[in-house]
Every structure is written in structure tokens, then in C-alpha cells.
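Order emerges. For instance:

***
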Amino acid sequence: MKKVDAIIKPFKLDDVREALSTVGITGMTVSEVKGFGRQKGHTELYRGAEYVVDFLPKVKIEVVINEGQLDECIEAITNSARTGKIGDGKIFVTSVEKVVRIRTGEEDAAAI
């Protein structure tokens, strides 16, 4: 099993959710996060004063999937979240050792 964490631009969330649903991935956790990468924020003007916005709003999507779905999952996220501009985001993939559904006690693939 694999856990896929995707950090994307907030306005791309619906597109990514639909793309994942199309490839059969329906369960996910979504969080509003803030951060920056190479772009290191940007400057804005407020009432005539310029200030730096270091942390930009992003959305973090977390999904746990069977290993066989990994390539489809990454492709769906990449294609639907890409704008071609800086700050499109990142995808992180990690291994998951165990999953337990609390309500039923099901484990691993049955719990996903």
C-alpha cells in the first residue's frame, strides 16, 4: 500500500478530486495548508504599503491506495493540477505498513 500526499493550488481541488474519482479513487483527506517552495512567496500592496507574503495558501490531499493504482493516481493528480506556472505543487509517495478500519477491524487492503 502507498500513501500519496499532493500539495496543490486551492482552485485545482475540484479538478483533482474528479480526476481521482475517474480512476476509482474516492476516499481522501483534504487539508488547507500554507507553505512555500522555490517561489518563496510574493509581495502584495495593501493601503499603499508593500509587504511580503511568505506562506502561500495550498491544499494537501492525502490518499492511501493499493500499489497497483499508484501510477494512475499520480498521473490523474499531475494532469489535473498542472497550470504550467510556478507553484503548481508536489506529490510525495510513502509506503504504508498497516491500515485498520476502526469500525469493523478490517485490515490492510480491505480497510482501504
In short: Residues 70-81 form the longest helix (12 residues). The mean pLDDT is 90. The two ends are 9 Å apart (CA to CA). DSSP finds two helices and six strands in the chain.
